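Now for today's protein.

===
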Amino acid sequence: MPYYIRKKRKREHIKYSLLLEKDLDRNNFDDITLVHNCLTQVDIDEIDVSTDLNGVKLNNPIIINAMTGGFYRAKIINGELAKIARHLGLAMAVGSQKIALDDPSIVSSFQIVREINPEGIIFANIGSDASVDDAIRAVEMIKADALQIHLNAPQEIVMREGRKNFKGTLDNIQEIIQNVKVPVIVKEVGFGIAMEEAEILVEKGVKIIDIGGAGGTNFIAIENKRRSTNALRSLQSWGIPTPASLIEVVYRVGNRADIICSGGLRNGLDVAKSLALGAKAAAFAGLFLYILLKKGPLALKKYIIRTIRELMFTMAMSGVKNLSELRKRPVIIEGKTYNWVKNRGISI
């Protein structure tokens, strides 16, 4: 596909994600309740929120997830996100680098992240159809600490110019894992991962899974906006809700892979619930992008600081001083998520 078409598409993705973000329905995290601890003995100043993803050490479990890159405005966006990541000590992922692999003139829209945050934790990003050579080049481009391989079949299927043949995806992922020198994260982009597919991924050597559940950025809805006519709106509800996907994946492979929860998280309480359900980290994309572009970098920085504070306050009210202890606290699961889990044969 010509790179100028990809540039246009990336601009449209930003445009329509902003339009949809402001009308985003509440995710299903209201189904999850952390049990209050009236006898907490935690000193908030001693709370430790550090975590680990297959050897990648994170000072904080909140990740700025993959968003963009590949055109001038994306360079500005990535630069601002990198400044915030550096100031707050957050890991950050760039958007799909395929466009830069084909057009060296726009590599700087990705490299700016490493230039601004030379000591930070940065994730490269490619599609599941990328070659091993592409994967290695993507990592080298930004001196990445890990590589995201994104799964976006629904988006590609609905996209007029999208890929329609997904044969060989698993073997391709396995080959990349075997040949790159950094940890590999396999991530969905908003439709969730079921426990059966999580099992297959782990069998192929995947050690980090980002579930990318339904509830946040909806790429079927975005592609429908791009279509303008003949939109496939009946498919916009497709996907596994984030809490349900998280429970499924943790239940099946949580002892063999580190899980990142993403997909519509809104605040520090959602982060705490994700971590209590077994995630090792929690990632934000669309919400952070919306705040950055609508209210500015300072507003986003303040929002993230508040989110971290909410996480720590929730931990204190739960009586835990680190994330390992948080994962041992009792959790109540109700509503649609309870029905989903029950129907899937998972004991809670």
About this structure: The mean pLDDT is 92. The first strand starts at residue 32 and ends at 34. The CA atoms of residues 14 and 68 lie 8 Å apart. The radius of gyration is 19 Å.
